[in-house]
Design brief:
Structural class: alpha/beta
Strand order of the largest sheet: 3-2-1-4-5-9-8
Number of helices: 10
Distance between the termini: 25 Å
Radius of gyration: 18 Å
Largest sheet: 7 strands, mixed
Oligomer: single chain
Length: 270
């Protein structure tokens, strides 16, 4: 999350897609749209998980020390200072290689977290053990979370991880589960890809994908779904605000249009 997939041997369709990615990236945008739509129509949930896992296997940056020891982004620091308690126990979901967890430990917080990509989990556990032996990071299911306790004082959902979950229902379920692990009124920092209105080509992907999925008798994809190269969902403002509300949170800091990175802070409804 976490939402980054467990390592899964790529299925045949995923292997074929990965072989074609470099060539497709050189196509002009109008030609990439039908290609993405075709593949979103062909890929099932297990395929999307395998594709995501293969992408994160190959993205060395997220495994390395430079990225994971760089600390919080400025917009994360601002949200933390403005809306989170100055002490307490936090839950980091989709912890990746440990960047957020390490930064929060350095600020004096007690940290629990989870991550579903096994290699990222191992490197995060190793780094945290060096500085905070009491911190706990657990393996989590894809599109879900794992935590050793409840009643956390705050939570971070890893950088952009909400956009990696396919399907509104699963995203709302993830946030609802997160809320059950928080104290009433506790804040969560949620970041995601947004600005679908500024990328009109995204609107053309779902019709192509859903033509294929109707033929295959599969559930439709959503407007905003795309491959970049793994699955991501790009939100518009009404979409993300509706999901947060449906999961039982009240938005207290709306930065959906933030130029640095779209995000918001919400509190668990009391």
């Amino acid at each position: 999350m976490g939402t980054k997939a467990r390592r899964t041997p790529p299925r045949t369709r995923v292997r074929l897609l990965l072989r074609c990615q470099a060539a497709v990236g050189r196509l002009p945008p109008p030609l990439r749209i039908p290609w993405i739509g075709l593949w979103l129509g062909l890929l099932d949930r297990r395929d999307l998980h395998a594709l995501d896992g293969a992408c994160y296997d190959g993205w060395a940056e997220y495994h390395g020390s430079e990225h994971n020891r760089r600390g919080l982004w400025p917009w994360e620091e601002r949200a933390l200072d403005a809306h989170f308690p100055t002490e307490g126990r936090f839950l980091v979901v989709a912890a990746g290689g440990g960047r957020e967890a390490l930064a929060l430990v350095a600020r004096g917080y007690a940290i629990h977290g989870c991550e579903c990509h096994p290699d990222l989990l191992r490197v995060a556990q190793k780094r945290l053990a060096e500085v905070a032996p009491g911190a706990r990071l657990l393996p989590s299911p894809r599109d879900g979370l794992a935590a050793p306790t409840r009643d956390y004082d705050g939570a971070f959902l890893g950088w952009g991880a909400h956009s990696l979950v396919a399907g509104r229902g699963r995203r709302v379920d993830l946030l609802t589960s997160l809320g059950r692990h928080l104290r009433p009124g506790a804040p969560v920092l949620l970041s995601f890809l947004a600005h679908i209105g500024r990328a009109p080509g995204l609107r053309a992907i779902a019709p192509v994908a859903n033509a294929v999925r109707r033929f295959r008798r599969r559930a439709p994809v959503e407007r905003g779904d795309t491959l970049a190269p793994n699955f991501v969902h790009v939100f518009d403002r009404p979409g993300i605000l509706a999901e947060v509300d449906a999961a039982g949170f009240d938005v207290v800091d709306d930065r959906v249009d933030d130029d640095a990175y779209p995000h918001l802070v919400a509190r668990r409804r009391t």
